[in-house]
Design brief:
The chain is 59% helix and 14% strand. With 373 residues, it is an alpha/beta fold.
């Protein structure tokens, strides 16, 4: 889940939000202000309910952030690179680049999230008791205690991408000796739970509980889809293990002068080659950056003759680099999502290839085809 709004960073971990967060934020505030709080604490001003509802929504997402931050901090302590945290429709997700080194590490990373939610629930319950003199505040803390306890329980459901699915996977990994087999076994159980949720949701639709039925069925579908994605990702990493970068990279690489204009490039260079990414160099031959065809064609026609490639290229310092003999699985774990920006392959100081997600997909297709034949 990619963030669409950057919120900042905590302990060096980037925090972002997806646009869907706004919908759920408004829904939580509305539910508290028009339903929960007026029912529990009547005869207060409407503005007080809405102020408390908005505050409750903010604190709720603070609790979700604490849940995800606990995952990220333990993962980083376990040697797993953390790309960031995104808050979205279903709460939050810690984006980890790489895998835990052991079943125990995966269990610890997964288990700390629900534990954090239960601790927050206990703290909220204590604050609710301590603030009884202010009924609206006390009720809000009581609600936070309930939802955090529910969040902890829900995350223990043994289905991906929930923490319970990862805990179950770590148990199978420990017993079977293989993370891929552990994920496969956990996904089968998670798939059964997802199908049961979809069936329950459909049953609720037919019995008149339409809204609840839609939500339950939708969550079941989401768990089913997420489990399949987790299994596919695990299979890809297993397939790329011990495969060198040289097996997938595109070589040789065409480098072009960075002083020519975008117009000159599109008219004289691009039509002669099938590449979509080009490293660029200065007059001395030193690489200065990388340009992508898709980015260049977006530049307006009137501006193409004014922009030199050096002004629109991604600086070479921001482009990941590797060696031909590096393990592909290790490379993906090392750079994560940065693979989208392409990877330059150097051997003895010279540029010998370039690697893109398409190159890796092509290699996987060939290996899977040969494996079935």
């Amino acid at each position: 889940m990619a963030p669409t709004i950057r919120l900042g960073s905590i302990f060096g971990i980037e925090i972002g939000a997806n646009w869907s967060l706004l919908f759920i934020f408004a829904l939580i505030a509305w539910t508290l202000a028009t339903g929960v709080l007026p029912s529990d604490v009547p005869h207060e001003a409407a503005s007080a309910y809405w102020l408390a509802g908005a505050a409750g929504a903010v604190v709720f997402y603070g609790c979700l952030l604490a849940h995800e931050l606990s995952h990220a901090l333990v993962a980083r302590r376990s040697g797993v690179k953390v790309a960031g945290i995104t808050l979205w429709l279903f709460g939050g997700v810690s984006r980890l680049d790489g895998e835990p080194k052991s079943a125990g590490a995966e269990a610890l990373i997964a288990g700390v999230g629900p534990l954090t939610s239960f601790v927050i629930a206990g703290i909220s319950l204590g604050l609710a008791s301590a603030s009884r003199a202010a009924p609206l505040v006390s009720d809000l803390f009581g609600w936070l205690a309930f939802v955090n306890a529910a969040l902890g329980v829900f995350n223990l459901v043994p289905a991906f991408p929930l923490d319970g699915g990862r805990l179950l996977s770590s148990i199978f990994w420990w017993r079977q000796g293989s993370r891929r087999q552990g994920v496969h076994s956990a996904v089968r159980i998670g798939r059964l739970i997802a199908y049961l949720m979809i069936a329950l949701g459909v049953l609720q639709l037919f019995t008149g509980d339409v809204i609840q039925g839609i939500w339950v069925a939708f969550i079941g579908w989401f768990l089913l889809s997420a489990g399949s994605s987790e299994e596919a990702g695990s299979a890809v990493k297993a397939a790329l293990k011990s495969v060198p970068v040289s097996a997938a990279m595109t070589s040789p690489v065409i480098t072009i002068p960075d002083w020519i204009t975008v117009d000159q490039f599109l008219e004289s260079v691009a039509p002669s080659h099938h590449f979509t990414t080009y490293p660029v160099h200065d007059p001395s031959g030193k690489l200065t950056g990388v340009v992508r065809l898709g980015d260049l064609v977006k530049i307006g026609g009137a501006q193409r003759s004014d922009h030199r490639l050096s002004s629109v290229a991604r600086p070479i310092s921001e482009v990941p680099a590797t060696r031909p003999d590096e393990d592909l699985a290790a490379l993906i774990e090392r750079i994560g999502a940065a693979l989208e920006n392409r990877v330059l392959v150097f051997d003895k100081g010279g540029l010998v290839g370039i690697l893109s997600p398409v190159d890796i997909a092509r290699l996987l297709t060939v290996r899977q085809t040969l494996g079935r034949s």
